[in-house]
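Progress note, sequence design subtask.
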């Protein structure tokens, strides 16, 4: 059942005339956390403000970032579709989103632009719509501390320098973070997140090469 107690979680936020007879295949393996979120009505979900986003990043509580309930449902449907069509999310990312034939880096971290691609986060979190959520994908590894799972001081410095050089000069309000290993949806591809508050639209278009997030392309059926 959903947290509302009236209907199963898999019917929440779905128009009654579109209710399936049984739980869709893409939701059958949901963990308790996702069931709870998907079973929450969108109208009761509160989007995170920019101040809240900055604070979660500052205290490294990136586990507090969640997708809006209906978006999480669509995300699970999308990834289920990807695995069936491409074999894995990673295969889809390489062939369709990154268009990388090889993951071999040309040089050291952030030395060559060809080792980096900036795209929209395909399924952004439930945040203020004035916040633009990007993902920086890299062919090179960004070292983590094996004991804590967090970025090493050297790695953090490398990322910080890149973020300030790439985004800081054009956008005053910017934060970045790397997901904990346990939270990564694409574990085999190195990446980190960048969030910009009210950035110039032309700058975002330029930096992403005119990219469009998959959430704006995927049609549920």
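Output:
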């Amino acid at each position: 059942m959903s947290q509302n107690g009236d209907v199963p979680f898999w019917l929440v936020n779905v128009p009654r005339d579109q209710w399936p007879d049984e739980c869709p295949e893409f939701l059958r393996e949901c963990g308790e956390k996702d069931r709870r979120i998907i079973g929450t009505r969108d109208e009761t979900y509160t989007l995170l403000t920019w101040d809240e986003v900055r604070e979660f990043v500052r205290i490294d509580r990136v586990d507090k970032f969640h997708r809006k309930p209906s978006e999480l449902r669509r995300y699970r449907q999308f990834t289920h579709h990807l695995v069936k069509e491409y074999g894995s999310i990673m295969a889809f990312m390489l062939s369709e989103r990154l268009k990388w034939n090889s993951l071999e880096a040309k040089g050291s971290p952030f030395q060559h632009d060809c080792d980096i691609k900036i795209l929209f986060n395909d399924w952004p979190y439930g945040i203020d719509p004035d916040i633009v959520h990007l993902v920086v994908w890299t062919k090179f590894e960004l070292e983590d501390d094996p004991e804590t799972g967090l970025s090493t001081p050297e790695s953090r410095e490398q990322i910080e320098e890149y973020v300030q050089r790439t985004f800081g000069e054009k956008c005053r309000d910017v934060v970045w973070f790397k997901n904990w290993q346990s939270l990564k949806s694409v574990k085999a591809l190195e990446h980190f997140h960048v969030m910009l508050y009210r950035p110039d639209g032309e700058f975002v278009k330029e930096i992403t090469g005119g990219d469009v997030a998959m959430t704006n392309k995927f049609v549920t059926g």
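Residues 45-65+102-219 form one domain. Work on this subtask will continue into the next period as scheduled.
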